[in-house]
Amino acid sequence: MRLHRLEITAFGPFARTESVDFDALGADGLFLLHGQTGAGKTTVLDAVAFALYGTVPGARREGKRLLSDHAAPGAVPRVVLEATLGGRRVRIVRSPEYMRPKKGGRTGITKENAKASLTWLDGDGQNLTRLDEIGEAVGAALGMSADQFFQVVLLPQGEFARFLRADSEERGNLLERLFDTSRFGDVEQWFANERRSSAALMESSRIAIDKLRGRIATASGEDEELDREPMEWATDVLGRARGAHAAASTALATARGKAELAASALDRHKTLLVLRQRRDLARKQLAEFHRAAPERDVIRREVERSAAAGPIATLAAEYAKTARAYDLAARDAESVRGSLAMIDGSEMVLASSSSDTDDGRTVVANAVREWTTAVVGLQEMRQLALRADAEEAVARELTSECRAVEKAVDAALVLREQLPAAIAATELAVTTAVHAAANVPALESEFAAVSDAVKAAIELTKTRTALASAEAAREAARTAHNDAREHLLDLRERRLTGMAAELATELVDGGPCGVCGSRSHPEPASVADSTVTKADEAEASSAERRAAAAEDLRTAEAAELVRVLDALIARSGGRGSDELVVALDEVTTRLTAARTAAASLDDLRAELAHLRSEDHGLASVIAEHRSTAAGLAARAAQVRSSVEGMRARVAATVDGEETLDQRVARLEKLIALATDLQHKRVAAARAADISGAIAERLAAQVSESGFESAEDAAAVVIPAERVRSIEKQLAAAHDIRAHAEQVLAEPAIAAIEDTDTEQVETAPWQEAADTAAVELDGAVARQAECKRRFEQVEELTAQLWAAVDHSAPMQAKHDQLAALTDVVAGRGQNARKMSLRSYVLASRLEDVAESASARLQRMSAGRYEFVHSDEAESRGRRGGLGLDIRDDYTGVVRSAKTLSGGESFLASLALALGLADVVAAESGGVVLDTMFIDEGFGTLDADTLESVMGVLDELRAGGRVVGIVSHVDEMRQRIPSRLHVIRERDGSRLQLFSAS
Fold first, then answer.
1. Could you tell me the end-to-end alpha-carbon distance of the chain, in angstroms, rounded to an integer?
2. How far apart (Å, rounded) are the C-alpha atoms in residues 973 and 167?
């Protein structure tokens, strides 16, 4: 990563736009970032971090206030960074979230969301505008997170000093932010989750076994013996259930045999009773059949006569139907013939025979063929007429289009005649606007000068008023000071006069006098009302000093106002405010007019180009329209000539009083009626033939049947429903007779003696069978219950065997998993008490210590090096993250907390650089061409500083740029390339000093 250019606007303490050219600043490989406290040195680094990651380091990110308080209202905070990331040059533009005034004249403020864009300056790849996509692109190019970047590129010495003295817990928290150990934490969590899952499975297995024991006890009806092994107890219960099932099965077989014997005896008696009842019913049915024989003969003869008369009646109905069909066909043919006679040209068809003969058919066919041929010819002429109408419409349309084009040509000519004057006027306006734009800078300078003079004149009036007040205040202060000094001198004089009274107040009985030494004070002087004490003099002296200070302050204020007054007079040029206001109005008017003219320059130029283009376009349009009009006129003339020829052909074909459509309609009607007449004649002839044939058949059948006439035969025909009813009645009677004879012929019924009339009693046998059935049901229920218990106990015992067999390997696996989980978590057999994640962090810290030791030895002249300790700490805190110092002078390993301030800085710097190397390697060997080192050089002596500078020289080897943030004056002498952050009341600014 290498930085090229940074631009900051309304960001932090920077109110305006400030830019840094890192290529020029870092040309020597080393530059200094310095400035007053609070000027914004750290903000420069924050701007780099914000451009890349959209956030700033440390606690400052929590403030979420990046908009400069010095910025003008409506200013947009923005950071623009050009850098090379992963070998590709990019430009990143970011604006943070900030609060801005509402637009549209509304009061209050509203939140403006963060925005960003990333542009690939090599032109390869799609530019980005989404915050998440930009973050992913920067992270992929740098290969490190924001926290890693803040620690590796922006080396904060204060944090590494704390890291140096921190305990293992704090040190581990920082290392976890820098090194991605989440996958090792996932491994620890996986083991913990697996152990919990395994424990849950073991508990489920135990619960399942307990449930199975309970279910076996419930199924067997025995009490559960918890003091015995599950399988031993379950085997005994299964044996007892098996024995009970065998005994119940034996009892069931005995009861079933007894019930079968009782049921068999009951069935024999019931069967005898049923046979007697069936014999008596069959005899009764046969007697009834013979009694109703005469009635059946009557209805059978009725059906036979109806069957003989049925064909005759059917044929008579068919004859009547065909006769009606012949009459209808004859009437239809006569109706069509009448319609045909009303049309001219039908005489040839009407003259033919009115019956269906071969000659008549030939005449009709010839007439239809002749008429059809004529219709085809007429239809061709009709199509030609329609085509002539269409072509005539096309000719009219072409003529209309030609006239429209000619009108367009006339309109274009009128427009083109107006363009030269408009072009000349616009060219004049462009020349005027160009001159006005050239005068704008001079008018702006004049406006700024006059505006400043007006402001100075206004301030001059206010300053003169303030000066008069200040001079009055100065005179009042001088008078007050003189009064206070005179009062002090008066008090001192009065005190000297009353000094005896003052000394008398200090006398103590038995104590020596301060003047004569006597311990006897017969007549001490008394204090008068006007006596001045030391306190009075001190108070007056203090008042005199205050008055003198006030006089000095007022005098300084008046002098400052005199200086300001002179400056304002110089700015206003000695002119009055009225004169300046007039001058300002005049220059404002001229400047506004010039700006308006200059602003319209682009529009005027565009208008001029548009007018010239319009003139050229109109010329082209006129030429094109004229050519189009000529082509349309020629085409219209050609179409009209074609129409005249087609209409002449149609007129030659149609000769007489009829029109073309009337003649076609008449011929088509003749064809349709002649064809229909022929069909009607054929239908009438066919109907006459069919009716005659049926009449002959009907006469023959009546003669053969013995009926007097067809009407007599139809009279004896009965309805089909009546026929079916009689046939059904006869069939039912014969079925009853056949069934009765079949029943009487059965061997069991035939074997019954007619004299066997003894009453059959089934009640005793029924009672015996019921008793046996009840006993059987009880035996079945007992056997089913014993079987159910036995089968349930057998099934549950098998399940218990399976559960016990499954639980044993699970328990062994769980014990092994629990031991591994404890080791991974730093418990159990883990002698170092280090979790897997702590072990990885300890390995990283060992790499950091090794890299940092090389630089620490270089900077401390071989005296100090880091020593990494992986011993466990007390009170359960994680081990492996110990970091001490070995002193080569004494050979003693001691705590880093014992180092002096300068030594701590050396150790912190070495640790920061070592950590940067390891993180860079961890990130895939990312080359960090630019890095910053924060404050701390002021604690070093000259020799040590020289060693440190040597290490920094090594850092910039290979093209790396190192920026040092420091207040030390000597660093300014050593490092010629400097970025000076200057603090001012209206916001900070940047000043670059390049070595070149």
1. 23
2. 39
Q: Which residue has the higher pLDDT, 350 or 781?
A: 781
Rounded to the nearest 5°, which phi and psi values hold at 790? -65, -45
Q: Are strands 892-895 and 882-887 parallel, antiparallel or unpaired?
A: antiparallel
Q: What angle do CA 819, 824, 828 make, to 5 degrees?
A: 45
3-state secondary structure of 830: coil
Q: Which amino acid is at 87?
A: G
Is residue 837 a contact partner of residue 818, using CB atoms and an 8 Å limit? no
Model confidence pLDDT, tens digit, residues 193-212: 888 888 888 888 778 877 87
In this prediction, residue 103 has a pLDDT band, given cuts at 50, 70 and 90, of confident
Q: Is the torsion defined by CA of 947, 948, 950, 951 positive or negative?
A: positive
Query: Token match 């309970």: residue?
Result: 214
**3-class DSSP assignment, residue 183:** helix
**Segment among 155-169, 455-469, 627-641, 667-681 with least mean pLDDT:** 155-169
- 488 sits in which H/E element: helix 358-497
Own/partner contacts of 273-281, CB < 8 Å, gap of 24 or more, are: 273/760, 273/762, 275/748, 275/749, 275/752, 276/752, 276/760, 278/743, 278/749, 279/743, 279/744, 279/749, 279/752, 281/740, 281/743
The one-letter amino acid code at 680 reads K
Helix (H) / strand (E) containing 20: strand 14-21
- Read off the tokens for 60: 């400052």
Give which of 586, 583, 585, 563 is closest to 575, Cα–Cα.
583
Q: Which long-range contacts (CB under 8 A, 24 or more apart) does 560-564 make?
A: 561/463, 561/466, 561/467, 561/470, 562/467, 564/463
pLDDT at 754 over 70: no
Tokens of 512: 């020596």
Please give the C-alpha separations between residue 735 and each of 19, 25, 739, 766, 788, in angstroms, as whole numbers: 123, 128, 6, 36, 54
What's the length of the chain? 996
Question: Residue 670 and residue 346: Cα distance in Å, rounded?
Answer: 7
Residues 946-957: tens digit of each pLDDT: 777 777 776 666
Distances in Å between the alpha carbon of 869 and those of 160, 164, 895, 903, 969? 18, 13, 11, 20, 39
Of 621, 614, 619, 628, the C-alpha closest to 404 is 628
- What tokens appear for 806 in the block? 């499954």
Give, to the nearest 10 degrees, the angle between helix 230-291 and helix 763-824: 140
- Read off the tokens for 36: 């007053």
pLDDT above 80: residue 684: no
pLDDT digits (tens, 9 = 90+) for 713-730: 667 777 778 778 877 888
Within a 10 A sphere around the Cβ of 702, how many other Cβ atoms? Answer: 19
Name the maximum alpha-carbon separation found in the chain. 201
How distant, in Å, are the alpha carbons of 203, 214, 228, 240, 825 from that of 234?
A: 21, 11, 10, 10, 42
| Mean pLDDT on 628-646 | 79
Distance between CA 507 and CA 535 in Å, rounded? Answer: 18
Nearest CA to 881 out of 863, 898, 896 is that of 896
Cβ-based neighbour number of residue 303 at 10 Å: 16
Can you read off the two tokens belonging to residue 703?
């003669």
Structure tokens at 931: 């890095």
Taking phi first (over 0 means left), then psi (-120 to 50 degrees means alpha), and beta for anything else, what does residue 891 get?
A: left
Token pair, residue 619, equals: 């010329």
